[in-house]
Every structure is written in C-alpha cells, then in structure tokens.
Amino acid sequence: MPDGQQRGDEPTDDDARKTSSRNKYVARRRFLMATGALAGVGVLAGCGGQTGDTETTATTAATTTEEPTEEPTETPTEEPTETPEEEPEEPSLEEKYPGLEILSPEPENAQAASRSTYAGYITPNEEFYIRNHYVSPTIDESEWQVSLTGLVDSELELSMEEIKNSFGTDSVAHTMQCSGNGRSYFEPQVGGNQWSFGAVGNTVWTGTPISEILNAYGADTSAGNYLTVMGGEAPDGEDIFTRSIPMEKVMDDCLLAYEMNGSALPKEHGFPVRLLVPGWFGNNNVKWVDRMHVMDKMVIGEEWEDGDQRLYTHWQQYSYRIIPEQDDGAVQYESIDIFDTYEQMQNTDEIRNAYMYDQLVKSLIGYPGEGQTVAPSPGGTIEVVGVAWAGEDGVDSVEVSTDGGETWGEAEFYGPAYTPTAWRQFRYIWSDPSAGEHTLVSRATDSQGRVQPATISAPEEGLRGIQDDKFPWNEDGYANNAYMPHAITCTVEE
User: Fold this and answer.
1) pLDDT tens figures, 170-180
2) What does the pLDDT average to over 478-494?
3) Looking at the predicted structure, is the pLDDT value of residue 320 above 70?
C-alpha cells in the first residue's frame, strides 16, 4: 500500500506521482536538517555584511538630518569582534578505526585488517567493519525523528527521547556480516568493494523492541505483512536505502538500536538509531532510520519509484539478490514465504533470485593469522582458534584441516554461553605439527546439517543454489561461504 493511502482506497496514477514526490521531499528535507544544510541556508540569509551595512547607513543618514551641535561628533568605531574558534578537525577514518583496512574513505567502507579480530568473542568498535552507500551524515540526536506510517491507527513521528524512554529496552549479541563479505574471492572478479574475510563482527546491540512500538500505535502486525524501513542519509537525487522486513521477524526480535557495545552508536554505524535484525545479513540492518512503513507487501512498483529512478525499490528488489550470469536482472516479488536464504537458493522455482535475509553457515580462523610463523608449545601442539556462525539456525559443529582440506579433525566450542544469533568460538589442538608451510581451513555445520561448501562455481555453470560442494558464482558476489577461499597459510618453526 503506497504511503498515505488508506485501506479501501484505490490508488490512481496521480496518487502514485504525489506519493513518490512526497516520499522524496520528506527524505531530502530530513537529510538536509540532519546534516545542518538547512540551518546553514538560514544563517546565510540572515547575517553577513549586507545586513550590518544597511543598519549603519540608516543610522548615519538619520544623524546628518539633526541640527549640528557645538561639539564635533566623533566617528563611531566598531567594537572589535571575537574571532570564532575553529572547530577541531574530525579524526580521520584511520585514526578512529585503527583496526580496519580502509577500502574507501567517502563513502566510508572498511573491513577488519587482521585475522586476530576473529580470535575473540566481542568485536571492538574500532575493529568492526563499516559498510556505507553514502557519506555518514552529522546528526543532532535531539532533532532526529522516526516516522511511523502505513497500516497504523494514526501516523506519527517519534523522537529519540520517546524511542529510548517510552518503551522497554533489550540487548542482543548479533553477528552482523556484510552480504558482500568474501566478494574478492570470486573468479572472474565482480564489481563493488573487494571485501575479503573482514566484513563481519560480533557485537552486543541495545535498543527498543520494535514490536512494542507497533503494538502501542495500532499497527497491523498480521503475518504476511512487512515493515519497510528507510534510512535518512541519501543525498538529493539518490536512491533511499530501504528494506522490507517480514512482520513475523520484526515482532520476534528486531530492535531500533542506539547502542553498540554499551556506547552510543558511532556516526559511521548509524547514529542515532539503526534497525537491528538479529541473525540476518547486514544489508537488512538499515542505518539512520528515518521512517518505518507498515504494509501488506514488500516495497515494489511504480508508486515507490520516480520515473526511471528506483527511489525506494533499488536496495530491496534489484540489489542484494543472487543473480547468475545468465539472468537479465532479478525477478521482483510482492511477497515471499521463505526467508531462509539457503532455502531460497535451493527453491528457485518459487524464488528465482534469492533475497539476502537469514545468513548462511560460515567460519573463520582467527589464529594463526595469514602468513604468520608459529612455534609449537612445549608439549608439541599448536592451538588453532576461530569463530563460526549460521544466522538464526546456530552452529552445530566445526572441523579444522591443517593440510588444505585433505583431512579433518573435530574442533571444540568454548567461550560465552551459546546464543543462536552470535558466533561461537572454537579451538582445535593441532598435535605434532611438522615444520614448514601449511594451509589451514575450517568448515562449519549448522543445526540443520548444512555444511559450508568447498569452492565457488564457475559462472557458466549457472548455479542458483549450493550444490556439488560449490557456492554459486553470482554477478554481485554475495553471500560467499565457501571454505577454501577463506583458508590461511602459516609456517611452523622447526
């Protein structure tokens, strides 16, 4: 249902055009307010030399019409003005995030620089990957509002104070992974940021359960409906980052998150508020949430577009889809019944191009690191450690190979209590390692018995799902969980 349309009303072409224009105007207006651009326009219009000069001229003219006095008048001098202090320059991305490899400074995109990030349970903020489509806006939290529209009793706007203080608070440990993580391992290479292993992190997120907000304002939370969430960072003329999340998931555990590891969200991670969808790929976790729209289908169709521009539909219907080389773009759907990404990839009769929703099973070795030289302990062993995750399904087991996948040994889990949406730490005791170079790799199995595939298929194979121990090559390099590309090489000292 388009923005502002009441149930029972039939949309017209004119309604669609008005809806699109209103959507674009509201988003642009909020972006300008958030970044201070509108405030800057007001300052330029109301100050500066012209206004001051006009007032001085008027005063002087009035003085010259008065009768002259015996004493000569002195020419007034202007009071000296204080030179405003220059605001300190904001630290560079490298200074703020020393644990990241910067892929692009504007917009900010960066990944963990070291495998050591994956030897611990909680990812520090300075090592947590950053994925942005546009430059992070500078926002005044006191001015920020999130609108609730669509199938609700009445449309409204919520301040950050209301979001934080008028509802309950929840915290969840969630392993968030960019859907393009592992893209650099595709052959032939695909476009986009060349993420290798480092676009994933495990963090404790704190925020307000969206279910409480929807219930409080009479939203239609029926199964089959969607909550379409929009970000407020897009500059004028650009597509607005928008994702449609199925209502069942929203009501189960989604948050409007405003804290990351116990601190306010950093600017680059969506300050002051972002959507948190536990267990699902990072593209669903919309930053700088500006609007939540309750509807009976995904965002789709001309009423959500602006002529040839996919104003709201781009990131939901065209991008973040599994598209083989043979396809001419993705097939759009108003609604789907399968949200497990693996199942979508295997049921291509129902969903030709899978949507990036629930994460696939995956693992990474954190120690030893790539190219590292290690020495056995006095007992002649080396401890291999890492992390494994599987979205909502949870991880059942992890195996480790020290000979490039020829033979495997069972790893054991350790660390904090098991939480399905957070990764599990594993360790493997490598006994009597021989001196020299070795290729180490891990593979995980989820609670449904699904195992990481070994390699990535060739484009000409046209795979849409995981089969024959291969992950399907796709034109945007999404969701790669093949284990051999993620192997590391280390050297054991004599």
Assistant:
1) 999 999 999 99
2) 97
3) yes
Do residues 146 and 289 touch, judged by C-beta distance below 8 A?
yes
Backbone dihedral angles phi then psi of residue 140, each to the nearest 5 degrees:
-90, 110
CA 411 vs CA 32, 281, 357, 387, 457: distances in Å: 52, 26, 28, 11, 27
Per-residue confidence at 22, pLDDT binned at 50, 70, 90?
A: very low
Contact status, residue 204 vs residue 416, Cβ threshold 8 Å:
no
Q: In 3-state terms, what secondary structure has residue 40? A: helix
Distance CA 235, CA 430 (A): 52
- Given a cut of 90, whether residue 129 has pLDDT beyond it is yes
Burial 27-49 (b: 16+ CB within 10 A, else e): bbebbbbbbeeeeeeeeeeeeee
- When pLDDT is averaged across residues 321-340 and rounded to a whole number, the result is 97
Closest among 421, 457, 132 to 325, alpha carbons compared: 457
Decide: 248 and 223 in contact? Cβ < 8 Å: yes
Beta strands in 140-191 (DSSP E): 145-150, 156-159, 170-177
Q: What is the C-alpha to C-alpha distance for residues 464 and 345, in angstroms, rounded to an integer?
A: 6
The DSSP H or E segment spanning 244 is: strand 242-246
Q: How far apart, in whole angstroms, are the C-alpha atoms of residue 174 and residue 21?
A: 36
- 32: pLDDT strictly greater than 80: no
Token digits of residue 162: 């209301």
Which uninterrupted H or E stretch holds 32? helix 13-35
Q: Which of 445, 433, 456, 276 is nearest to 362 (CA)?
A: 445
Range of lowest pLDDT (75-84, 207-216, 224-233): 75-84
The pLDDT tens digits of the residues spanning 250-286 come to 999 999 999 999 999 999 999 999 999 999 999 999 9
Counting Cβ atoms within 10 Å, is residue 413 exposed (0-12), middle (13-18) or buried (19+)? middle
> 404: which 2 tokens?
């490039």
Residue with tokens 């950050």: 160
State pTM to two decimals. 0.83
Pairing mode, if any, of strands 488-492 and 373-374?
A: parallel
Give Cβ neighbours of residue 239 (< 8 Å, ≥ 6 apart): 309, 310, 311, 312, 314, 315
